[in-house]
Amino acid sequence: MIRIERPIAISGLALTLALLAAPSVHAQSADMTFFVTSSGPGKGADLGGLEGADAQCQKLAQAAGAGTKTWRAYLSTQAADGKPAVNAKDRIGKGPWQNAKGAVIAKDVAELHGANNLAKQTALSEKGEVINGAGDQPNRHDILTGSQPDGTAFAGPDDRTCKNWTSSTQGAAMVGHFDRKGLRDDEPSKSWNSSHASRGPDGGCSQADLKSTGGDGLLYCFASN
Length: 225
Fold this sequence. Notes:
The protein is an alpha+beta fold. Helix content is 26%, strand content 13%. The chain has helices spanning 2-21, 25-29, 49-63, 109-112, 162-165, 187-190, 207-212; strands at residues 34-36, 71-73, 97-98, 104-106, 142-144, 174-177, 196-197, 215-223. The strands form two sheets. Strands 1, 2, 5, 6, 7 and 8 form a six-stranded mixed sheet that branches. Strands 3-4 form a two-stranded antiparallel ribbon.
């Protein structure tokens, strides 16, 4: 009996210690300050404005155990109805930002818009998961930003924010590729925040339109504090 019981006891102890040592998803995510949303609100580029987009970031961060931080969506808005434009780069704090696994994306705003560490393996969801990119089915690499490469809003009459994130029909939204891949080997295709405008038969801003060009209404979320 001794020979049978001792290995079982040791094995049970080892298993217990392993479980105690393994970090939980929430423990990993507690220090997270950046993620790509695992899902959008579901109404295409109608996010409920900046407030609705921020709320989506906050909700997903809360579910992942990082809700004590103040989360902001990386989105610009264009000047309209007497209101000035808002630049995405001005909404997200000073950095540094790291994903759910602890990999640093960028140390500050300048590095984020320069030689950052964003790629498919680092642009993780709030759950710490890799998101489908170019070559996967379905491709979800288009991320809504409404921004120019330097993180500022677009000037002029052309809509690049689906009516400042309130339209799910007519308009267009600038998107970036989190995996830095596109149809061509050029800078726009590799841009994480300013690759191309959305388009489609519904007018350019519906969920179906976003999916048709390789997106799903996903956002970049940053802890601003």
